[in-house]
Design a protein that fits this description.
The complex is a heterodimer.
Chain A lengths: L18 E5 L6 E5 L4 E2 L2 H6 L7 E6 L14 H13 L8 E3 L9 H12 L5 E3 L13 H7 L9 E5 L2 E5 L16 H12 L7 E5 L17 H7 L6 E5 L6 E5 L2 E5 L31 E7 L7 E6 L3
Parallel strand pairs in A: 3-14, 4-5, 5-6, 8-9, 9-10, 10-12
Antiparallel strand pairs in A: 1-2, 4-13, 7-8, 11-12, 13-14
Chain B lengths: L12 H8 L22 E6 L2 E3 L2 E4 L3 E7 L8 E2 L14 E6 L3 E6 L7 E6 L5
Parallel strand pairs in B: 1-4, 3-8
Antiparallel strand pairs in B: 1-2, 4-6, 5-7, 7-8
Classes of the chains: A alpha/beta, B mainly beta.
The complex binds copper (II) ion (CU).
């Protein structure tokens, strides 16, 4: 239900196309999908769709939880390998991959080693931000930063530019406050303000972090306390795409010039907000698991807004 | 894929030691009926479904409280006043802390901060 399938190739509807609204019964949550917005399509359709040539494609993967071996997925490394195999078979080679955190399950050296080995096989550069599962070592993130966060600032934030797009990786899983949500902190927000100060408003911006930067479901901690300050900082930009993980399912919405999107996990699904007693790993029937795991492709077609987002399950 | 670090808990000698630690649960104070436990019962707070249970626990000074994680996801137990902080508790891991001084101790999970609980330490009335 959280994975509406589109029968339109991305980008074929106008931005003002009809809005389809979906409601989670009983939760009061509302989210919208519309023409020109991020859309989810099945693998066969994604591979077969005749899209205009996309000059610039990158991927998002998330929540690989290497080391997880509980009933919801006894082999999280195996499904990550399947995701990598799928990436290697994509018709257009992505420029790079953004991993939005929870690379490992318990921040163990062996888990980071395994993840590193598996992800290397993609053959493309990777950019990371940490999830809360990546900062569990005794030094609270030293292992992650030494391995995946070299050259970053603070707990691991940074920015870079590719193809005229400004990419910002943020960390919202550090120094969380009792009773609260994800947290960025004043140092990071001050850095962000300086980072975007010199950019022209026509620069497309992609901002990525582990926990959703907008409030998805506070009862389960799915949001970022000071996330609104990021959005305030980016309000003047004509195209902002926000990519998050953490909730192991696709949820998307658009507000003005900002497209929000959360990616599937490659390890295990979590329930839709409010549909279970807790947000813990959801065990699905045998044969269904790979339909709720997957990867995300993003295509930038210059002169067309916003970025086209295509979610592809590992199977089905 | 199980790594050498994820052996089943029951094979870990330190866990056996943790279970056998004598736990001095003194008579419960007001707000916690004495019938709920005897002087030798371990005082346990379970972590299930991203919730501490009971959310508020009242004990006498000197009581050792043990948290047990029953979830498939790791959690922590962190005092808001920084008095105590567990390491990361994987499934079935335990953490114990002995409360000496009367007071209210608010704590939370540093990974999932919407998870909160309180231990009230109070002298028995008689
Ligand atoms: Cu937790």
């Amino acid at each position: 239900m959280q994975d509406p399938e589109s029968h339109h190739p991305p980008g074929t509807l106008s931005r003002r196309g009809a809005l389809e609204c979906m409601t989670w019964a009983g939760t009061g949550l509302l989210w919208s999908l519309g023409g020109g917005l991020p859309r989810a399509v099945g693998l066969t359709r994604a591979l077969a769709a005749e899209e205009p040539p996309a000059p610039f494609t990158f991927l998002q993967i998330s929540d690989s939880h290497v080391g997880f071996n509980k009933p919801a997925n006894p082999d999280a490394s195996g499904t990550l390998r399947e995701a990598v195999a799928m990436i290697r078979q994509l018709p257009e080679k992505p420029a790079f991959i953004i991993h939005t955190g929870d690379i490992s399950h318990l921040s163990k050296e062996q888990e980071f080693d395994d993840a590193d080995q598996i992800l290397r096989d993609t053959g493309v550069p990777l950019f990371f931000v940490p999830g809360e599962h990546d900062l569990l070592d005794d030094d609270q993130g030293r292992s992650y930063r030494d391995r995946f966060g070299r050259g970053t600032r603070g707990a691991g934030w940074y920015s870079f530019d590719r193809e005229g797009v400004h990419f910002i990786g943020l960390v919202n899983v550090v120094d969380l406050k009792a009773g609260g949500l994800g947290n960025l902190g004043t140092d990071q927000l001050a850095w962000l303000e300086r980072d975007v100060a010199g950019l022209s408003a026509s620069t497309p911006v992609v901002v990525f972090a582990h926990i959703p930067l907008w409030t998805v479901y506070p009862e389960w901690g799915w949001g970022t306390q000071d996330g609104a300050r990021v959005l305030a900082c980016l309000r003047r930009f004509g195209s902002v795409t926000v990519l998050n993980g953490h909730i192991h399912q696709i949820i998307q919405k658009v507000e003005g010039n900002v497209s929000f999107h959360t990616a599937r996990s490659t390890a295990f699904p979590q329930p839709a907000p409010g549909t279970a007693s807790s947000p813990g790993p959801m065990k699905v029937p045998a044969g269904e698991l790979r339909k709720v795991l997957g990867i995300t492709r993003l295509n930038l077609i210059h002169g067309r807004e916003p970025l086209a987002i295509i979610d592809t399950p590992l199977a089905g | 894929m199980p790594s050498p670090h994820t052996l089943p808990r029951r094979f870990r000698p330190w866990l056996v030691a943790a279970v056998s630690v004598p736990i001095l649960a003194l008579a419960a104070g007001r707000g916690a009926p004495a019938s709920e436990r005897t002087g030798t019962d371990p005082v346990i707070i379970r972590i299930d479904n991203f919730t501490f249970g009971p959310e508020t626990l009242t004990v006498a000074p000197g009581t050792t409280v043990t948290w047990v994680n029953g979830d498939d996801i790791p959690h922590t137990v962190v005092a808001q006043n920084k008095l105590f902080r567990s390491r990361t508790l994987d499934t079935d891991d335990r953490y114990s802390f002995t409360f000496e001084a009367p007071g209210e101790y608010a704590y939370f999970c540093s990974l999932h901060p919407h998870m909160t609980g309180t231990v009230v330490v109070r002298r028995p009335t008689n």
